[in-house]
Amino acid sequence: MPDAVAEVRKAVDRLYGHRVMRRRAAEVTSESALRGARASAALAGADWPLEEVRRRSDFGADPEARTVGAALRIAAEAGQLLSIWRHSPLQVLARLHLLAVGDGDPAAGRPRRAGEGAEVLFPQELEPVESVEVEAVDGPPPVLPPAPGAEEVAARLDQLSRLLVARAEGQGVGTPALVVASVVHGELLALRPFGAHNGVIARAAQRIVLIAEGLDPKSICPAEVGLAELGTAAHRRALAGYLAGTPEGMAAWIAYSGRALRLGVRESTAVCEAMQRGMV
Q1: Listed residue (111, 86, 115, 118) closest to 96, CA to CA
Q2: What is the pLDDT along the chain (280 residues), one digit of tens a residue?
Q3: Residues near 150 by beta carbon (within 8 Å), at least 6 away in sequence
């Protein structure tokens, strides 16, 4: 785990030192949000080309379009919720869900109630991209357990919120940002607190933590891109390790999260290089 933390810190610092960041940081942030939203939607079952996401303005026509629209709305507002996140993470999660489903949904902004289920996390399998090496593993990826019931979800969300607020108040400051972001991401995927869009919300929360913790204050490192590039099979295996709760499983999840973040850094580095060459 220390290696994963150090490698991420080094990669992020290198990106922040890029010449383009001196003059066009806001543009890099905007492009990171767009690419992160596209990747998050792909993991949620709407794998659209980047240029299609960039071109479209109507996102209500079909389920895939609504998923892409949800990811874009969340990405556009997530960075503005930082001050609320520090004292009320659950309020931010409710807001993210409202952004995803719209205020016309009677379940908007509230966790699942007793008897209500959650949609599957990975409705569509994504293969890893050719430029990314993924360790070959025999057999199919593990089947994830069903989402816990509403009572357990409420208790664990409250516990997570208390830990995050305590950290914002100066407690637990020795824990690296990558670890905190990984735990928030993993816990929200484990709980699936809402009926829909849990994956998109969990990834947005991870991004908010990376901003709040100061690792990626300008939000230019789209970890969602890395998660998508690694493929859903690797995602399932890493998440299964987190759900197991063993030291080895947690370490593997954090290392996986670190690799995804470094791939996000690679994506934004390519954006900076294109800007420097005048291609963007």
Answers
A1: 111
A2: 678 899 999 999 999 999 999 999 999 999 999 999 999 999 999 999 999 999 998 888 799 999 999 999 999 999 999 999 999 999 999 999 999 999 888 999 999 999 999 999 999 999 999 889 887 777 788 889 999 999 999 999 999 999 999 999 887 678 999 999 999 999 999 999 999 999 999 999 999 999 999 999 999 999 999 999 999 999 999 999 999 999 999 999 999 999 999 999 999 999 999 999 987 6
A3: 111, 112, 113, 114, 115, 116
DSSP per residue, 106-161: TTTTSPPPTT-----S-SS--PPPTTS-----SSPPPPPPPPPPHHHHHHHHHHHH
**DSSP result, the chain:** -HHHHHHHHHHHHHHHTSTHHHHHHHHHHHHHHHHHHHHHHHHTT----HHHHHH-----SSHHHHHHHHHHHHHHHHGGGHHHHHH-HHHHHHHHHHHHH-TTSTTTTSPPPTT-----S-SS--PPPTTS-----SSPPPPPPPPPPHHHHHHHHHHHHHHHHHHHTTTTTTS-HHHHHHHHHHHHHHH--SSS-HHHHHHHHHHHHHHHTTSSTT----HHHHHHHH-HHHHHHHHHHHHHT-HHHHHHHHHHHHHHHHHHHHHHHHHHHHHHTT--
- Alpha-carbon torsion angle 33, 131, 251, 150, nearest 10: 50
Q: Which domains does the chain have, with CATH numbers?
A: 2-276 (1.10.3290.10)
User: In Å, what is the CA distance from 113 to each residue of 103, 150, 153, 197?
Assistant: 18, 5, 9, 16
